């Protein structure tokens, strides 16, 4: 009996000892940083980690403690939260702070270590590879596709005409999914015309699972997560998502091999460049004579899908919301569009987009007020100064910094 008690108590004692050491060691560097009181082990998770109002809670913390404050997440992992634009710029420009926050780990099962979740040399290599894929000349090649999908969106929105209000997000989400699949994979999934397709369902399901897991205390612990229904659902959805992307990659590689690739992608009829999808750019990428593996390509295609789908849908929805509550701004946008667009055609060309200066200002202002990505996380890998506070080098599990792009009185009136 005594032996059994020792077996149970000794590991517990060891855990408590390590926790006390870790807590007070990190507190040496954080003691002068303002912030809310934290509970042992769970930190401030009970206040922000498992609620849908987490962002609003952090905004309240900012008002109370200032533009830089401390928090503790699960197992008392310390976090520094800042909404200071200069500090945010410094953090995002740093090539030494490329390791993402713990919450990004929840995306690895779907995205692997693509540009969003990777770090160090792989991040730098893939950044070099992907930057040319976003050149305006490549994006210009998709204008016709954007016009076609925009026409479908307008047709679908007509069913809501005359109603006092409606939820526009589902329409925008399906439109965005069509655009992302076309530009990233060169594939049409017709989400707006058939929202019940398997791929649409699977993308929505994996986004839901990742989002809910990031807000759940239980699901954030990997061991406990394996016993949840979402874990089983995630396995099933991921298998289908990866199969879909793999098949698109394989088919596109076959098409490129069968086509005359020596023509430098020129259209034989018109002598102009064919549109180059995000997938095509990666398949053609070479560095030191070597390309990248199909698995790496899949990671980046899936990453592009995840980053573009949710953020763009949220961003466009926020812009439409702002236009609805500021009718005078909406009217000014309409006047500008009427002065630029051809009344006899519903299509928009690239040059006309460049002339929409007022609309561009409105879009940027809406994104400033309602950023689609309100939180960005980085982990310390070396001694770092955040404002006037010095943070010690820490391993990847012990120190996380979160950046809140929330509104503040000086920069965000």
TrEMBL record:
Coiled coil: none annotated. It holds the Pfam family p450. GO terms for molecular function: heme binding; iron ion binding; monooxygenase activity; oxidoreductase activity, acting on paired donors, with incorporation or reduction of molecular oxygen. Keywords: Heme, Iron, Membrane, Metal-binding, Monooxygenase, Oxidoreductase, Transmembrane, Transmembrane helix. SUPFAM superfamilies: Cytochrome P450 (SSF48264). CDD domains: CYP4 (cd20628). The keyword Oxidoreductase applies. InterPro entries: Cyt_P450, Cyt_P450_E_grp-I, Cyt_P450_sf, Cytochrome_P450_Monoox. Gene3D superfamilies: Cytochrome P450 (1.10.630.10). Its cofactor is heme. This is Cytochrome P450.
